[in-house]
């Protein structure tokens, strides 16, 4: 049975798998994202001790614009690293949207206009080097990773 079959059965039975967001939590997340995005646009781009940018994507199924505040880590003068942790249990929606429509991605840094970017998912030694820098800068991300059964994707965003 695939994950899709399980989710379909749970929805038909009116149940959710534990840890699967419900309508209220999705609404709450979008509300919080909108508040954080407003702060970033006003020039305040830090949250819980991490630099934050707005990642603009397009919904993979809906085609609707999406914006998500995400922590970023510098990768040289003109690139940004983001980690698709998604709370540990699954890739976040923004990751699926970004991978489905990489040509429509952009970022907003605090107080700046949106900039089109190209995402590159890092693998192998490139991911490991980037991960070591990220973990050194934010040890709590490494702690979250150690508790997850999956390897968090690391995405390099470069100007397009």
The helix fraction, in percent, is: 25-40%
CATH architecture: Roll
What characteristic shape results from the CA principal axes? Answer: globular
Number of domains: 1
Tally of helical segments: 5
CATH first level: which class? Mainly Beta
Biggest beta sheet attributes:
8 strands, antiparallel
Average of pLDDT: 82
CATH topology type: Pnp Oxidase, Chain A
Structural class, from helix and strand content?
Answer: alpha+beta
Instruction: Please write the string of helix (H) and strand (E) elements.
Output: HHEEEEEHEEHHE
Q: Which regions are unreliable across 5 or more consecutive residues at pLDDT < 50?
A: 1-18
The CATH homologous superfamily: Electron Transport, Fmn-binding Protein, Chain A
End-to-end distance, in Å? Answer: 40 Å
Radius of gyration: 16 Å
Overall number of strands: 8
Share of residues in strands: 25-35%
Catalytic activity: oxidized coenzyme F420-(gamma-L-Glu)(n) + a quinol + H(+) = reduced coenzyme F420-(gamma-L-Glu)(n) + a quinone
GO cellular component, one term: plasma membrane
InterPro entries: F420H2_quin_Rdtase, Split_barrel_FMN-bd
Pfam families: F420H2_quin_red
